[in-house]
């Protein structure tokens, strides 16, 4: 290798040394005499000076290069003349005084600026992703992602986990999304499915005595895309034998506490918050609350049982709830701002929003005049209201009050910048429902997946009130994102059959789809459980990105298209024939 340093590595300790740099022309300034080139690579950039008196040939090369040319320069590392240092960059105190320069490869003018971090239309960035990858933001994100994965591998290796690869060409796995299918050439009419997750394989690894497994696993789900979803994504997948829920969540808490501190540089709230699904839904109206700030809603129903206020009375008479949210310091919100919050509440099905601004002088409220002094006092006490607070109340059937105030909570946090980007607030959410009713299909669906164990105390509900049964299922959330889910699994054939029956699989379907698993459960399957974490999301949170596409080297766009490779794309008649496929395209 000819280069002696990375461009971004030069420091004052190198002054007086000779250096050979290779990199891309990031900027070029011709000062009519001296030419300055910022030469860039993954680690940053260094200033190179070309002096026509000292090195006429190198100066000639420098005057001909354009942005993004690949250049090799040799010279001496010097201190920049006093007053010309650039404290904003790591190499800002030094420069390379060029003696020799050689163009290694020219470049067409790039279709967007690599130098400038400004916004460029995403489709252009994705079409020329290799140029986008040169931009410092994405380069930084890829390095961060690498450090996350390295940390994970070391962490689990040190704790006796084995990394095991599982098949990509496999059978449909019921993770709740549509499968990507791969036609079989050798078995006409049969298809592989790409794994939505290695779920069954990791359970079979436990049957196989592997005991502790993890994998940086690629998963494929054909579903509508969002900022936090891609057709293929990466999970940290793990499974452990002879464990309970707290063992799995405990190791995840340890991993995320240590990794966040070491890799993200952000502050972590410890211990992680612990909420049941029911608590999260009631207090925050969501199962992935952003806990960087408070603003939980409170039940005020008992205070208003006798209230004159028609809306409250009526909601309670229908069996509803009255919940209140205290928004500290926002008593100054204008009528217009409150109207906007009312719209947010209506978006969640609420019919209205009652409000009171706690201000000395002229008290403002949409409903205080309907309350007795005792009711008012009890409300203020329950909400721990203080001077300057805005109180917001929703009266409706549950879960509307929780959902409406939860949405308002998010909106207020946005307006008031309550969510610090430098903090990671993790939470373990437990006791998810086992199944939910799919009214359209007229059957019960697994909330997590069909291999999830019901809670022991709820087993009796399976045949009577399945909708009330809770699962040994859990999520890890962070800053309002669901990072991942897991569960303690069913490890007995009879219980697994019961669940399959509840989900409406008849004997034939049970055998065709899950016969392999049911058989395995007859050969001494240990109790086991595990979890999977969306690594793209973790990287995005650590990198302060809202879209996971920014932390994936080659992502698909919003319509699941890879604009760089132009995939998906039509294939030849011969390929189709080989696969025994005839197309029936929409007209
Ligand atoms: N396979 C599950 C998923 O992808 C995670 C798990 O239960 O371990 O969500």
Quick overview of this protein structure:
This protein is α+β, with helices and mostly antiparallel strands and 587 residues long. It is built from 15 helices and 24 strands. The model has no long low-confidence stretch (mean pLDDT 95).
Overall mean confidence score, pLDDT: 95
Strand content: 15-25%
Task: Write out the distinct hetero groups bound to the structure.
Answer: aspartic acid
Q: Using DSSP, what is the number of strands?
A: 24
**Ends: how far apart?**
57 Å
Query: What portion of residues is helical?
Result: 25-40%
Q: List low-confidence stretches.
A: none
Described by the principal axes of the CA atoms, the overall outline is: globular
Radius of gyration: 30 Å
Query: If strands are numbered along the chain, what order do they take across the biggest sheet?
Result: 6-9-10-24-23-22-19-12
Structure class: alpha+beta
Question: Helix count, per DSSP?
Answer: 15
How would you characterize the largest beta sheet? 8 strands, mixed
Explain this structure:
With 587 residues, the chain is α+β, with helices and mostly antiparallel strands. It contains 15 helices and 24 strands. Strands 6-9-10-24-23-22-19-12 form an 8-stranded mixed beta sheet, sandwiched between helices. A 5-stranded mixed barrel has the order 1-2-3-5-4. The protein has a 5-stranded antiparallel beta sheet with strand order 13-14-17-15-16. Strand 1 and strand 2 (35-41) form a beta hairpin. Helix 4 (136-158) crosses helix 6 (245-264) and helix 12 (493-502) runs antiparallel to helix 13. The mean pLDDT is 95. The structure holds aspartic acid. Aspartic acid binds at residues 175, 197, 199, 485-487, 530-532.
């Amino acid at each position: 290798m000819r280069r002696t340093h990375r461009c971004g590595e030069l420091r004052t300790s190198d002054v007086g040394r000779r250096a050979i740099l290779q990199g891309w022309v990031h900027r070029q300034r011709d000062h009519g005499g001296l030419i300055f080139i910022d030469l860039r690579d993954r680690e940053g950039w260094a200033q190179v000076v070309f002096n026509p008196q000292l090195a006429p040939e190198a100066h000639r090369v420098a005057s001909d290069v354009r942005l993004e040319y690949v250049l090799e320069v040799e010279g001496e590392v010097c201190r920049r003349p006093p007053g010309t240092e650039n404290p904003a960059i790591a190499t800002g105190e030094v420069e390379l005084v060029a003696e020799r320069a050689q163009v290694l490869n020219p470049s067409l003018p790039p279709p967007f600026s690599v130098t400038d971090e400004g916004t460029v239309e995403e489709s252009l960035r994705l079409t020329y992703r290799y140029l986008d990858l040169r931009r410092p933001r994405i380069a930084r994100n890829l390095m961060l992602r690498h450090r996350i994965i390295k940390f994970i591998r070391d962490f689990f290796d040190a704790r006796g986990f084995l990394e095991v690869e599982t098949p990509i060409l496999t059978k449909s796995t019921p993770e709740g999304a549509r499968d990507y299918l791969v036609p079989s050439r050798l078995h006409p009419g049969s298809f592989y499915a790409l794994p939505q997750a290695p779920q069954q394989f990791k359970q079979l690894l436990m049957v196989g005595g592997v005991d502790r497994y993890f994998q940086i696993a690629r998963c494929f789900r054909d579903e509508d895309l969002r900022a936090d979803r891609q057709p293929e994504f990466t999970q940290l997948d793990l499974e452990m034998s002879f464990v309970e829920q707290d063992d799995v969540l405990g190791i995840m808490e340890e991993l995320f506490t240590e990794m966040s501190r070491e890799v993200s540089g952000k502050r972590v709230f410890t211990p992680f918050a612990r909420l049941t699904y029911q608590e999260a839904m009631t207090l925050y109206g969501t199962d992935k609350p952003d806990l960087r700030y408070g603003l939980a809603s409170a039940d005020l129903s008992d205070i208003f049982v006798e209230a004159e206020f028609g809306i409250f009375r009526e909601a309670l008479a229908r069996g509803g709830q009255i919940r209140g949210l205290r928004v500290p310091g926002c008593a100054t919100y204008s009528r217009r701002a409150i109207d906007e919050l009312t719209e947010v509440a209506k978006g969640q099905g609420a019919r209205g929003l009652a409000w009171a601004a706690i201000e000395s002088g002229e008290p403002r409220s949409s409903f205080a005049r309907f309350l007795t002094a005792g009711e008012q006092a009890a409300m203020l006490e329950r909400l721990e209201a203080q001077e300057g607070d805005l109180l917001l109340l929703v009266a409706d059937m549950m879960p509307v009050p929780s959902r409406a105030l939860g949405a308002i909570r998010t909106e207020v946090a946005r307006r008031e910048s309550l969510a610090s980007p430098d903090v990671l607030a993790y939470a373990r959410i437990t006791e998810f429902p086992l199944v939910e009713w799919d009214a359209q299909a007229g059957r019960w669906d697994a909330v997590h997946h069909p291999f999830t164990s019901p809670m022991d105390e709820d087993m009796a509900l399976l045949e009577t009130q399945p909708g009330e049964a809770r699962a040994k299922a859990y999520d890890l959330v962070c800053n309002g994102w669901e990072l991942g889910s897991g569960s303690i699994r069913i490890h007995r054939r009879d219980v697994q059959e019961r669940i399959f029956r509840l989900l409406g699989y008849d004997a034939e379907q049970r055998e065709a789809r899950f016969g392999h698993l049911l058989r395995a459960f007859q050969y001494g399957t240990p109790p086991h459980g595990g979890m999977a974490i969306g690594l793209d999301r973790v990287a995005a949170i650590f990198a302060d990105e809202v879209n996971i596409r920014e932390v994936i080297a080659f992502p698909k766009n919003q319509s699941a298209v890879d604009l760089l490779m132009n995939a998906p794309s039509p294939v030849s008649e011969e390929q189709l024939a080989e696969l025994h496929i005839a197309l029936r395209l929409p007209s």
